[in-house]
Design goal:
The chain is mostly helical. It has 10 helices and 2 strands; from the N terminus they run ααααααββαααα.
């Protein structure tokens, strides 16, 4: 019993640590393309004289014309300490585990594991799309789950994508944002990584509670499945580590601004409402 208890505790610790890794590294980080330009001689360039700009013609609004609120980050001193703590955990535990998983598990098996976990997530995504007032996307996600669960053998094969059903990713924090709940201060949680007060509520009160693996009666099987799911998710963003480590600016500000911008885009499906102009009534 003592050996079993220690084993379960170790698995639980790995699960919590890997959970942070999902939010610790921006999933959209990609190397920037290198643009090459050929030198152009000014003597070969025909420069036309500029004409005065007529009033009201060809004018475009700049970012300075809009009221951009300051970043809500009153917990910055604590957040920076937490970020460093999370980074050390990732350096010593999470990344090595993900690298080992990526090395030992063959790519076809990793694809199957990702498909199965993604299929389970489609059901929760459908629920959130419905709560956000997007019945068409909710129906598409529910149909994806039905097709992949039955004909795809529990999600092993992603047949729904072959049938033209796109995959979405929605969580309860996004749903709260669509309902108009303010995001609140920026908040970095131990193990969970960057977020906001609203996203913390969405994760704890929604996403974690809706995890179907929590209902498994066997604690060992439940913890093993959840740990595999989280380590697999961390392994999928290993390719972004090189770019992340080459950041020469303030890493805290980079992660914070990237997260908040990406989160706003996720909540509004890439089309956030326009910001009010300076001096306009709200």
């Amino acid at each position: 019993m003592t050996f079993l208890s220690r084993r379960i505790a170790a698995v639980c610790s790995s699960a919590c640590l890997a959970l942070w890794a999902i939010g610790a590294v921006p999933a959209h980080a990609q190397p920037l393309p290198v643009e090459t330009t050929e030198p152009v001689s000014l003597a070969q360039t025909n420069v036309e004289p500029t004409t005065p700009i007529q009033e009201g013609v060809g004018l475009q609004a700049s970012d300075d014309d809009f009221d951009v609120p300051p970043v809500n980050d009153p917990f910055e001193p604590i957040n920076r300490v937490t970020l460093e703590f999370n980074q050390q955990l990732d350096d010593w535990l999470i990344r090595p585990a993900a690298k080992g998983y990526d090395t030992v598990v063959p790519p076809p098996v990793r694809l199957i594991i990702g498909n199965v976990f993604g299929n389970v997530g489609d059901l929760w995504t459908a629920t959130n799309n419905l709560l956000q007032g997007k019945p068409r996307d909710a129906g598409s996600d529910a149909l994806r789950f039905a097709i992949n669960t039955t004909f795809g053998l529990g999600g092993i094969a992603d047949l729904a994508s072959d049938f033209g059903l796109p995959k979405h990713k929605e969580d309860f924090g996004q749903t709260l944002g669509r309902w108009g709940l303010p995001e609140g201060p920026y908040l970095v949680l131990p193990l969970f990584g960057p977020g906001s007060v609203r996203d913390a509520v969405g994760t704890i009160a929604g996403d974690l509670q809706a995890n179907p693996f929590r209902a498994l009666p066997d604690p060992g099987a439940r913890n093993a499945i959840m740990t595999t799911r989280l380590v697999d998710a961390r392994a999928r963003v290993l390719s972004g580590d090189r770019l992340f480590n080459e950041i020469s600016i303030d890493r805290y500000l980079f992660i914070r601004d990237a997260y908040l911008q990406r989160r706003e885009s996720q909540i509004w499906d890439g089309d956030p409402p326009p910001r009010p102009r300076k001096g306009s009534r709200r």
